[in-house]
Structure formats: structure tokens, C-alpha cells
Amino acid sequence: MAEEGQVISCHTVESWNEQLQKGIAAKKLIVVDFTASWCPPCKLMSPILSELAKKLPAVIFLKVDVDELQSVAEEWAVEAMPTFVLTKDGKVLERIVGAKKDELQLAVEKHATTVENATTANA
């Protein structure tokens, strides 16, 4: 099990479901990186995702290889790599398709702030 501040790679459907359920139960923002080992733009985005994970430990970052977990990629309607899906409470908040570093950072920071503010307001 990875610690906060890291990107968690899901290699089985079971680990995917477990991580997703943990995020939903904890009411945390989950950022899913649907990637492929043969995809150059995916490799370009990997260190950016790692940096975001370090910067935002309250957010859960998951990585799914679409070739390894085809059923998960199909279930989430992933058609191009990389695809980033931001979700909370089982609902998709935003989808970013392509190696769009700035768009991804802005979306993650926007939704992470919204999540933190909601958590603080409920405390």
C-alpha cells in the first residue's frame, strides 16, 4: 500500500476497486491516470502526476495501465491516452484527455481546494 503523496499503480481489478472504495469512503478527490507503457505522452505526464501527488497529499492519485486492466478502461470509457479522470463520491467531476499539463494541474488544484473547503466546513 502506497502512502499519501504517491501515485498508486493498480495492477489488478481487485486493487483498483479497493483503492477506489477507500477514496470514496474517505470522501477524497481521486485522480485517475489511464496510461499505457507504449505511450510517449503518458511517459511525459508521469513525473508531473508524481509532483502533484507530493504537493497534494490529501488527494488520491491512481494509475491504471489500459492494456493491463482493459475492463476498467472500458468501464470508464477511455478511448485515448493519457486520460485523466477526477472523481469524488463516485461521481466524475472532470475528464482531461491528452498530455495537457497545465489543464490537469488547474483542474486538480481547483477540485482539491473545493474538497478541502467542504471538509473544513463540515468539521
From TrEMBL:
The keyword Disulfide bond applies. GO terms for molecular function: oxidoreductase activity, acting on a sulfur group of donors, disulfide as acceptor. Keywords: Disulfide bond, Electron transport, Redox-active center, Transport. The keyword Transport applies. Residues 1-113 form the Thioredoxin domain. InterPro entries: Thioredoxin-like_sf, Thioredoxin_CS, Thioredoxin_domain, Thioredoxin_H-type-like. Belongs to the thioredoxin family. Plant H-type subfamily. This is Thioredoxin H. It comes from Citrus paradisi. The lineage of its organism: Eukaryota, Viridiplantae, Streptophyta, Embryophyta, Tracheophyta.
